[in-house]
Structure formats: structure tokens, C-alpha cells
Design goal:
2 copies of one chain form a homodimer. With about 425 residues, chain A is of the alpha+beta class. Chain A has 2 domains: about 300 residues, Zn peptidases (Aminopeptidase); about 120 residues, Alpha-Beta Plaits. In chain A, about 40% of the residues lie in helices and about 20% in strands. Chain A is built from 13 helices and 17 strands. In chain A, strands 1, 2, 3, 4, 5, 6, 15, 16 and 17 form a 9-stranded mixed β-sheet that branches. In chain A, strands 7, 9, 10, 12, 13 and 14 form a 6-stranded antiparallel β-sheet that branches.
């Protein structure tokens, strides 16, 4: 009997989830994919649609002073201490439907499932649908979670919108956010009452596809060292007329630097440390470059990420050491812009263990991996809230309409969170 | 007595040359440097000004069917067999005044010097001031010398002007060129009567500056292998979320290729072969690239030059071998555009020897070097005309207003040609 009940449940969940994903994709469609700008009418309408769906299922819905929507079972609405489950509803321009939204729907499914099936949570649960997380609209990322915890910085508040150029804080005011509190760096919620923060998110890389697994427990969110533009300055010259000994070729100098970093990356991995390294943008000056001209300079970006601050420090040292060596060897100069540093955010070890335990109980192969992309979870973790994350298998990467998540994978991943929320843990997180 | 006479001569030459360079720079000035477009009114006016200066000095001036100006002593005007000295009068946009023009004035100085000083040439001498040589205006280079020798190809004839888009052949017709002959690939001159072709040109690299020498004899003009755009195709992904093992990063693949070619270049030089290698243009797609995105592709150019066809062949093989290795190793694909190949053009060994002998007789340190840039001389050499070139020391490279040639260096270099033209050589070139 249990098996058939389970099948019925799953059918219900599948229908519920598919309907919400499809309806929101339809309401927020762009010429390609979806566009749900941070702090926009479209975002507000998306929250209102979720509110209606939640009320239809007998859930309570309230809004905080950041105009994020909170959902809960009626009996938990006034709970002082609670486990928080959630993610964001905004998307990048012409993005995919699942990045962010999947984490909100995972929380809603847990609430509805608890109510429909009468399965009690071990502690009160609240679900949050946050606004702007994507950096694509204003530059800063994790806007809503930072505002919620009182850490959205003045420089971030005044960041101009990529379209109309008006500052973020103005757009926040338009959607009804208590911008006085945001400006005063006053938390909109007392995070000491959040027993744990859980977020489900599509994986933005290929690991789960490669490993043929539906879901993973996240160990932490990689921190990063970023340079938007490192310039290598050499000396221009005729491509045919300058012998090697008299060249100060910035392109070959950059190639050597990237190649040396690539080799060091391999060594760091062989030592068992975590690291990824990317040069996403590079180019000679299209105004002056030519086939038969040694360029005078070349610019390139670097994005180095690791779960381990030590590995980031090691790579930073290597970068500057190698650059100095090449400068001397080739008579060029590397000009570094200001480094943007984001510290790694570790998930709570107890939560990682409990989520892995839940995976095992659900007969899923337990798998723990780092998150390469940043998430709202990092803001909660860095504020001291015990944090856990679940990744769902996803083809096609993220931030593009090609995102591809199977609903069955989503339900398996959501099942881990539901199992966690409903099982008794002896662990005291705070 | 001889020393003081020499000083007076030099003073005369200095004044004559400086006046012509200055006047032509003034007449063809652009907002920066000079612009003397190929097959333009400005080019025609430059030839007319030279014609007037030559007539003032008692020289004969005629135009060929390519509307290039020919100068000679009256007694040599009808000579059947002759040594030809010359270069081009056009310039790149906002270029320097000396590239091309110096070679024409060197020839004129020789004629005027012979006439003023009564020093006879050992064989008749004609001086040619050619039109378009620079590729900047239409794409093809060496236009006038190719048309002169009947080798300007149909594709080159129809190349559109970078400004008005009209084909080269139309611009040639406007200046009075016999375009019927050009179209028919009929030589405008019988090159079998050219006993030797000599061209003086500013050096476009730093060798003479570094060596502290005023002039050099050129051994030959480097040929080249060129690719305007090689694309490396990889796979886009999130900079933080894709582990190294699952990456197909085109930028790191390109960096490895350039680094390997750079190392091979060094090995080839250590073997004593001649080679230069340049990646002048490279870039990720500015529409789609981002700091936190592994790019799906990167494009780059390659310009590989050598005096030795064998070294070019070796480097071509290495390029494709290394690319194949990296493709397999990294799961990327290199897409090569069509290779543009220009064969090396060797200067005549006898002329190189005679010019070096002239240097020694003039108490200059003899120095022989390859030319990295292409010149009209290559067209004559490849047509079978025994060819020689002299380089003049020049700071600031070429094709820019920063070209910087000392008149005293120019006169030393011109002295080599004059010495060559007036000395008896037992050598029979043809």
C-alpha cells in the first residue's frame, strides 16, 4: 500500500510544481527565456502569484519590510524560533526559470506536503521568497538577503540600474521596502531566531550530470579572488621587423602567465585542494591592433575560486610571483586593478551531516560537493546562521534559457529537505 | 682639401633633402603625421612636386603607363638597359613622412649628385617614384610595382577602397593608369632591361638603433605565414561551478598554444635560423564574455615570418601539431582560416656583396640584416630582377607619425647606393 500512496503523492507534487514553474515562466517570459528584474513590478507580481497559490493551499503569507514574501503553516506563523527555507525569485535578463525559483518552490512544496499529509515538522518552518539576488541588474549581488540582515552597504545601495541608471535604493523604495532601515543598516529580521537556513538551488556546473546523481549536499560556497582587468603593458612594433631579443610582447607574456597559472592549478588539485581558475575576458585594443603589429598592451580578467581561504592565498601569491618573474624576463609590466575578494562561506558541518543522513534514509547515494557560484546562503552563513544547501542536477548551466532541470530530480532534492525538516535531530545548532 | 670639399657637398645635400622632406610633409599633412593615399590626387601632386624639383636640377622626367614618375640624367633617358633605384610615395593614413619617400629621394640625390659633381655612373641609372605600395588603402600591397611588372591579380584590382568602397582599378583609371594593360596582366615595363633594382627604406624595427649603426645592407625580405583569425572553440560554463576535469576552456588552450610556439621559436633561433612570430590581435567575444563565465571561444591572429622557407615550413608544421595535441588534451577545437602565404624574397648575393663593399670603402661598419617588412623590392626580386636594399636607422617604428630618421643617417645610407652606382663592378647580373 505504501508504495502506491507514495506514487499518488508524487503525482500530486509533480503536478503542483510543474504548474507553478510553467505559470511563472509564462508570466515572466522574455523574447528568450525569462526576465524577472530585481525590485521590479514583474518580481512583485511573481510574489503575488506565489502568495495566491500558497493561500489556496491554506498557508499563511506575510511580507517583511524588505518586501520579501514569507510562507508558513498557520500554526508556525508566530513561531519565534524557526528553520528558514528559501531562495530568490528574480532572474538574470533572458535567464532560465529555475535559478532561484526552484529553491522557493522547494520550500513551498515542503509546507504543502506537511499540511496535505499531516506530517509534522520537528521545529517550526518558514519559507522565504526573496527579491533581487542576481548582480546582472545593479552590480551588487544577494541584495535582498543582505538588506534582510542589515549588511547592504551604502556603495551597493547607490549602484545604478543597468537600464535606467537610477540607484538601487530608489528601486527598492518603489517596491515598498523600508529604505530607512536599509540605509541605517538595521536588520529587517532578527537572525538569532533563525535556527538554520536551507536553500535548494540548481547546480550551475556539470558535476551531477557527470556523476549521474539527482542531488547533492553542498559543503560550502567557494570564495573568490577577482580581477576585472589586468593589463600587460609591452612595446608596440612591426611584426616582421623586431627580432625576438628586442621584443616586449604583452600577448606572449600574458600567454606565459596564464599557462603557468594553469600548471599551478593542476599542482594544487593534485595536493587535494579545491580550486577553479578562469580568464573570462581578454583582448587587444580593437582600435589599434593589427595582424602585423606587436600590440603595446593586452587586457584580461581573472576569477579564482576555492572553498579554502588558504588555497586562494596560495594562488594570489603565485599570481604575483609569476607576474614579477615574467616582467623581468620579458621587459613588460603587469598592471593589476583592485582585487575583489569574497571569503568562502562554509555550510554548517552538522547540517551537512544531517542532510547526508537524510539522503541515505531516502536511498539516495550521498554526495557532497562545493558550490562554485554564490548564493543567498553565503550571506546567512557569513552572518552566523547555520546553513545548508542542496543542489539539483541541471543541464545547460545557469543564467541562460538552456537551463534544464527534471522535475523528478527536483522532487528528489526537495525530499532531502523535507526529510530533514520532519526528522528529529538531537543537534542543537545555536 | 678633399675633406673640406666633402663637407660642402654634404651641406648641399642636407639642405636639398631636408627641403624636399619638409615641403612634402607640409603638403600632405593630416591632423597627425601625413596621409598620402594610394592613387589619389595627393599622390599625384606629390609626384608633380618631385617632377618640378627634378627639372630644376636639370633632370629628365617621364611617366610610365602606371603613372609612376621616372627621373634620369638627360643622357640616360633613352638607355635601354639601366639600374633602377626607387621606392613609393604613398603613405599609410596618418603615417610617417619617411616610409617610401626616403627611397625616392635617395635616388634623386644620387642623380643630382652625379650631375652637380660630374661623377659618372658605371651604368645608366633611372629613378622611379612609384604610387601605392601600402595595403592600408585597398588591402593589397605593392600595387604599383605589381602593376608595373604585370602581376597585379584580378582580385587585387577589384579590392574596394577603405573609404569610398570603389574598386582599386577605378581609382587607378582616375589617375590615368592604362588599366587595359593592368587588366591584361601586360607588364608596363620590360623588366629584362632592369639590370638591378635598388631600394633604400627606413628600418621598421630597432636593430640599427640597438647596434648604433646608420645603415645596413638587406639580405632579403622575410616571407610570412599569416592567419587573420584562428578560433579556438571550447565550451562555455560558470567560472565557479565547473571543475577543471570537465572544462573545455578555449582561453587556456590558446595560452598553451602560444606558449608552445614561443618556446619553439626560441629553439629555432638557437639553431641559427631566422624567425619572428606575432599574435597581434586576440579577444573573447565582447557581446557574451563575462568575468565569471568560461568563454565558449576565443579568436587570435598569427603572423610568422622568416627569410627561410624551410623555417616557415617547420613552424607551420609545429603550429598544426601543437594545435592537434592541445585539441586532444583539452577537448577544444582550433579552426584555422585560410593561410596567407608570402614567399621570402632574397636579395641578389652579388649586389649584397657589392653594397657591403661600398660600405667598407665609405668607412662604414658593414652590416647585413633581413627585412621583416615587405617592400616593392620583393616584387622585383620575385620577378627575377637582381635586387638590393639599404636600410636607414629609424626610431619609432614605421606607419606612425613617430617615425624618426636623421638626415645624416639618410645621407650615409644614400652614399652606399651612390658608391655602388659609380663604382665599376665586374659582376654581370643578367
Amino acid at each position: 500500500m505504501k508504495a502506491s500512496v507514495r506514487t499518488n503523492e508524487q503525482k500530486w507534487e509533480e503536478g503542483f510544481v510543474a504548474r507553478l514553474f510553467e505559470e511563472i515562466a509564462r508570466r515572466t517570459a522574455d523574447d528568450q527565456g525569462v526576465s524577472r528584474p530585481a525590485y521590479s513590478e514583474i518580481e512583485t507580481e511573481t510574489l503575488k502569484y506565489l502568495e495566491q497559490c500558497a493561500r489556496d493551499e491554506g498557508l499563511d503569507v506575510v511580507y517583511d519590510r524588505g518586501r520579501n514574501a514569507w510562507f508558513s503553516l498557520p500554526e508556525d506563523t508566530d513561531a519565534e524560533d524557526y528553520v528558514l527555507v528559501g531562495s530568490h525569485v528574480d532572474s538574470v535578463p533572458r535567464g532560465g526559470n529555475f535559478d532561484g525559483l526552484a529553491g522557493v518552490l522547494a520550500g513551498l512544496v515542503c509546507l504543502v506536503k506537511s499540511r496535505r499529509e499531516g506530517r509534522k515538522f520537528s521545529r517550526p518552518v518558514k519559507v522565504i521568497a526573496m527579491r533581487g539576488e542576481e548582480s546582472a541588474w545593479f552590480g551588487p549581488c544577494y541584495i535582498a538577503s543582505k538588506a534582510l540582515l542589515g549588511v547592504l552597504e551604502p556603495g551597493e545601495q547607490s549602484a545604478p540600474h543597468k537600464g535606467d541608471g537610477r540607484p538601487l535604493i530608489g528601486h527598492m523604495a518603489d517596491t515598498g521596502v523600508d529604505v530607512g532601515a536599509v540605509r541605517g543598516a538595521n536588520p529587517l529580521v532578527d537572525h538569532r531566531h533563525i535556527l538554520a537556513y536551507l536553500e535548494l538551488h540548481i547546480e550551475q556546473g556539470p558535476m551531477l550530470v557527470e556523476k549521474q546523481l539527482a542531488a547533492a549536499v553542498v559543503s560550502g560556497i567557494r570564495g573568490n579572488i577577482r580581477h576585472k582587468r589586468i593589463a600587460c603593458i609591452g612595446e608596440a612594433g612591426h611584426s616582421g621587423a623586431v627580432p625576438r631579443a628586442y621584443r616586449h610582447d604583452p600577448v606572449l607574456a600574458m600567454a606565459e602567465l596564464l599557462n603557468r597559472l594553469d600548471e599551478s592549478w593542476l599542482t594544487i588539485l593534485q595536493k587535494g585542494d579545491d580550486l577553479v581558475l578562469t580568464c573570462g575576458m581578454l583582448g587587444t585594443d580593437s582600435e589599434t591592433h593589427a595582424l602585423s603589429r606587436i600590440p603595446d598592451s593586452v587586457g584580461f580578467s581573472l576569477d579564482i575560486r576555492s572553498q579554502d581561504t588558504g588555497a586562494l592565498d596560495e594562488m594570489r601569491d603565485l599570481l604575483h610571483q609569476e607576474a614579477r618573474y615574467i616582467e623581468t624576463d620579458r621587459g613588460v609590466k603587469f598592471q593589476f586593478d583592485d582585487e575583489i575578494f569574497t571569503a568562502p562561506a562554509l555550510c554548517d558541518e552538522g547540517i551537512v551531516e544531517d542532510l547526508t543522513g537524510a539522503q541515505i534514509r531516502l536511498c539516495q547515494k550521498p554526495f557532497v560537493m562545493p558550490s562554485g557560484g554564490g548564493h543567498d546562503a553565503a550571506v546567512f552563513a557569513n552572518a552566523g546562521v547555520p546553513t545548508g544547501m542542496i543542489f539539483v542536477r541541471n543541464r545547460g548551466g545557469s543564467h541562460n534559457p538552456g537551463e534544464s532541470m527534471e522535475i523528478s530530480d527536483f522532487l528528489q532534492a526537495t525530499g532531502i529537505i523535507f526529510e530533514y525538516l520532519t526528522s528529529q535531530s538531537d543537534r542543537i545548532y545555536r
